[in-house]
User: Fold this.
Amino acid sequence: MNAPSEAFLHDKLQALHAQADEFIAVRRDIHKHPEMGYKEYRTSDLVAEQLST
Assistant:
């Protein structure tokens, strides 16, 4: 199995850094609206919305 090239990893890391503020905002939103285990309806909707964009 071939390891990913440094250029590939660098590009992926840059893309993650570019979205860091968005990831942080989603995490903060989830923490502001806690839900009981197996009843994470709002969280599920939020994650589905983020994945579809």
About this structure: Helices lie at 6-18, 20-32, 41-52. The two ends are 32 Å apart (CA to CA). Residues 32 and 47 are 15 Å apart (CA to CA). The longest helix spans residues 6-18.
